[in-house]
Amino acid sequence: MIEQVKLLSDPEEVQKVYDFVKQYPLDYPDYFVWLEKCRRQLDIGDKRAFYATHKGSIIGSLIFQNHREEDSVLEIKNFRVSEEHSGKGVGSALELMLCSYGRSNGFSRIRVDTHHNNFSMIQFLIKRGYVIEGEENLYVINKTEAILAKDL
Ligand SMILES: CC(C)(COP(=O)(O)OP(=O)(O)OC[C@H]1O[C@@H](n2cnc3c(N)ncnc32)[C@H](O)[C@@H]1OP(=O)(O)O)[C@@H](O)C(=O)NCCC(=O)NCCS
Questions:
Q1: pLDDT tens digits for 76-105?
Q2: What pLDDT digit, counting tens, does each position of 107-140 carry?
Q3: Domain 4-109: which CATH class?
Q4: What stretches of the chain show up as alpha helix (H) in DSSP?
Q5: Is residue 89 lining ligand 1, measured as CB closer than 6 Å?
Q6: Torsions phi, psi of 3, nearest 5?
Q7: Ligand 1 centroid vs 92 CA: distance in angstroms?
Q8: How far does the centroid of ligand 1 lie from the alpha carbon of residue 16, in Å?
Q9: Cα of 86 from ligand 1 centre, angstroms
Q10: Would you say the CB of residue 79 lies under 6 angstroms from ligand 1?
């Protein structure tokens, strides 16, 4: 079903991933401000992304970066599979690529946060070997995020 999963590498691909992510806004404050900044960071390689395609269109993407404080950690910043293609292994394929990227580039851990009530994402991550490290208020005062991590 997936044609390929690729590490984003040129400005045209940045535009395509940006367009895909923009279609599926997530419930975070200033999401579109974040998205514009994210696009610039993808352009300069400060953030990186894997994306999956089907019939030439993007059906899933995983944006990540080096953790800002811990050199050995990769941090997932945005993860999304289009609803039409969910439950068919696309998310797993993207996450698998990130693990292999992390291992071959000397990282020892992947960390991700998601709304504490995003049960489908949390279930998916647990199935992929992540463990819940805790909960924190990262974005909104009265909303907590679950922090999950996986050792590589
Ligand atoms: C979570 C998500 C990435 C999963 O992608 P996917 O391509 O549907 O996942 P896969 O098909 O690879 O599923 C892998 C496993 O996770 C489990 N899983 C996937 N979606 C699930 C769900 N909604 N509820 C419970 N388990 C789920 C599946 O059971 C599957 O296990 P199996 O292989 O034993 O059947 C996708 O549904 C998504 O984009 N969700 C919204 C993302 C989001 O909220 N992002 C914000 C936080 S960064």
A1: 999 999 999 999 999 999 999 999 999 999
A2: 999 999 999 999 999 999 999 999 999 998 888 7
A3: alpha beta
A4: 11-23, 31-44, 90-104, 119-127
A5: yes
A6: -75, -50
A7: 8
A8: 22
A9: 7
A10: yes
Q: Is 115 in the pocket of ligand 1 (CB under 6 A)?
A: no
Query: Which atom in ligand 1 lies closest to the alpha carbon of residue 26?
Result: 46
Measured over the CA atoms of residue 53, residue 92, residue 130 and residue 103, the dihedral's sign is negative
- Residue 52 forms beta bridges with which residues? 5, 60
Distance in angstroms (rounded) separating the CA atoms of residues 32 and 27: 10
Locus of tokens 């404050």: 29
**C-alpha R_g of the chain:** 15
* pLDDT of amino acid 89: 96
Domain chopping of the chain, boundaries = 4-109
Amino acid letter at 80? R
Ligand 1 site, residue 87, Cβ cutoff 6 A: yes
